[in-house]
Structure formats: structure tokens, C-alpha cells
Amino acid sequence: MKDIDLYKDYNGSRKANVILSENIQVTDGVLDIDISKTKDNGKISGIVMYKSSSIPYSGFIKRINSGGGALQLGEETWQADEYYSGGRTYLNDSKEITNSDNDELFYTERYGEFSYDIPVPTADIYTVELHFAEIHWGNEGNRIFNVEVENGQYTLENLDLVHELGASHRSEVYIGKDISVTDGVLNVNFSKVKDNPKVSGIVVYKQSTDGARILSMDTKPKAELEDEATKLPETLGKEVKLYPNPTNDKVRVEFVADEPGHWEFVLVNALGNTTQLGQLNLEKGAYHLDFDLSQYSFGAGTYYLQIRNNKGLLKTKRVIVF
Q: How many angstroms separate the CA atoms of 81 and 260, rounded?
């Protein structure tokens, strides 16, 4: 990464951001990070490092390099652009893409009035990722467009990439979840407000349909659980354990509910996007819950598990997925 200007790149001061670098090979047992100045002093607030998995994603997933050819980006295989109707292609590789190590994906795009009809194997629930970077215009207000996925189940309205992301040549991924497809084809439509819509890449993957995605749940007898819950401290959720951590497939959560009611388990990524792992009606007591993360397309990175009851957030635990 060169010539980083935090204020400019993130559109102001006191705005946190995480830059993820993947597929770093270490051969001598030491990972080196050098920070040097261009003007004033280099800086950093935190560093997280974890081992990448060599296990590929095992479920249905389709990655489309919009406007470009087939790509191999680390362990991710992106197929050449297809399933589209209308639009044209554009290439601009004159400038580095920020907020991504996969510059090649964002150097091409499909633009104009166009749509995608992406075949999926079964009528089911899917997640759609839309990958964007403004590589043509340099100022906000020049390109504004709308996106509609599967008859409005997920929409982006009046999207101005330079305005939203703070600069051109900066990547971002917008995620639409819980998209129900009943006819075997997932539709994505792009329409203009000003100038031409565009997209750099589209990812579609199947979600689990087994409700809470819970593998197992162990509890003690109800009377014993209630007695145990009465001994809890007032600060709810201090004794939350999560393992294995880091993980790449399954994770066990141990926690104590101090009152009966509705509980939610939500995983949040660094961009604030949420994935609901489960919703349960629980009695007082201690619980062991096993969640299967392999049914989602979580990329490697740092996530936060939020355990909520009907009174709000209970506890946040950091989870590293590799």
C-alpha cells in the first residue's frame, strides 16, 4: 500500500477502517511489516494475524468477473463475465485500487443499461455480493444508479460510489441476504439515474435453510439451571466462552441466560454487515450451542459475535475466521 492518506481515503478524521491483506506467504517463521513515511509519520492502531486455510468452500458458490475474463485470486476462482443482457465492458488499470488486494477484479466492469440472470441449482435462499469501485469518474454526482435483486428483495437506490465511499478507485462490497429464488434463476437489474450503472463483480452463494443453523444444544435440568442463573452477576453475559477460536467451520458458544425469553445470535463483520446465526426461546440457565459456519460464505477475517435478548445487546465476543 502506497501513499495512504487516512483523512482523504476515509473521508474525514476519527473514522475506523480495517485493511485486509490475504495470501501472505511466510517462509522464515517471521512476518515482517514495514511502515514508512511519505509526509509526517506513518501510524497504525492494531494488527491481527492468522493462518489462512487451504480448505476450499464446499457449497454452491458462483463468482462472476463482470466485464472481464476468468481470474484466480488466491483460492478464489472467478469465472469470465456471463449471464448478462445488455451493457458494455470497460477497462481502466491506471490507478491502484484501495480497500482491496484484488485490484485486477476492479479494473474491469460492465456498465450501461443491463441485467444478469444467474442460474442457481435449486429453489432456495441465497446471498448476493455486489463488488464495486468507481474507476472512471473522479467526483461525486457524475454517476448515480439503482440496483434491484430478485424483484426488489434487495435494492440499492441512488447509489453514488464516489459519494458513498469517499473517493474513486476505492472498492466496496454490498451484500444482499435472504434472497428467495423459486424459478432457478436469480435476477439482478441495474438502472440509471444519471450516467451509466456499473458493477465489477457478482458473487452468489446458497444460504442454509435450517433455521438457526444450530448443530446441537446441551443444557442442564431446568431446576438446576434456574438455581445457577440466580447466582449470576448483575452484568449480564460476562461468562461467555467461544471455541475453537480461530475457526473455519464450527464454533461452540457457552453462555448463561439469566432470564427466559427470546435470544438472537448475530455475527458482524468489520464493515458492520450482519449474519443471523440463530434465534431461540430459552429458559434461564447455562447453554452450550454449536453453530455451523461452513454453510455461509464467510471470508477470512475478524468478526464479532453479538448475543442479544429482547432488552438489547448482551455481549460481544471477537471471532477469527480463517
A: 51
